[in-house]
Amino acid sequence: MTVDLSEVPVDQLMKEVSRRLECTRKPEKRIILIGPPGCGKGTQSPRIKYDHCLCHLATGDMLRAAVAAKTPLGMEAKKAMDSGGLVSDEIVVGLIEEATKSPECSKGFILDGFPRTLVQAQKLDEMLAKRAQSIDKVLDFQVPDRMLVDRIAGRWVHPASGRSYHEKTAPPKVPGVDDITGEPLIKRKDDNVETLKARLSAFHEQTAPVIQYYAKKVIQLQAQKSADEVSKQINAALAK
């Protein structure tokens, strides 16, 4: 596909070229983000992606894209979903394996939303081991449950990028509109108190073994702090 760059300002082009050159010198990183709903992963992942030249893999988005594109794994996933069953861990790991072969993931990836269970973590590690790779860091976003209710109730999301806003603590420049694209923000259907309590219960039960499994690679973040303060914690963790 040919892209017309004639309308792009020269300074923007040079900035992007410089960034891509800098990316070639970045070390590879494979990172897992773990945290309850509303913990700030959606705010931090675009920053990590940009700063470390990584690709961002959200398994829910990957599943929907694979089904829409009618890939072999996507068709298998669709069969499971149409029959009311769960998509197998093997299919999800297969999607991750396919995605990480893309040029965008040449310096590594951020995994968001997977693994959620100990079995998934083991299957992910088995896949990476076949490629002589492994997870480098697991960022554990810790926020007291009582603080998450207010975060969730006021959250708005830009669906295409995953950028998130909060009507009180991090509002968009124009209400209801993404700062960068100008596209409408949405409120997720499950962003309500009742759903949150059920999701928190499931999160604590399922992911505690995952954190224990990766214990030597886990970096605990005080994610109740401001986005900039959390970003500083992440930069310090990934610099090690």
Automatic annotation (TrEMBL):
GO terms for molecular function: AMP kinase activity; ATP binding. Catalyzes the reversible transfer of the terminal phosphate group between ATP and AMP. Plays an important role in cellular energy homeostasis and in adenine nucleotide metabolism. Keywords: Kinase, Nucleotide-binding, Transferase. Transmembrane segments: none annotated. This is adenylate kinase. The keyword Nucleotide-binding applies. It comes from the Eukaryota. It catalyses: AMP + ATP = 2 ADP. The lineage of its organism: Eukaryota, Viridiplantae, Chlorophyta, core chlorophytes, Chlorophyceae. Residues 155-190 form the Adenylate kinase active site lid domain. It is an enzyme of class 2 (transferase). Pfam families: ADK, ADK_lid. NCBIfam families: adk, PRK00279.1-3. Belongs to the adenylate kinase family. Its EC number is 2.7.4.3.
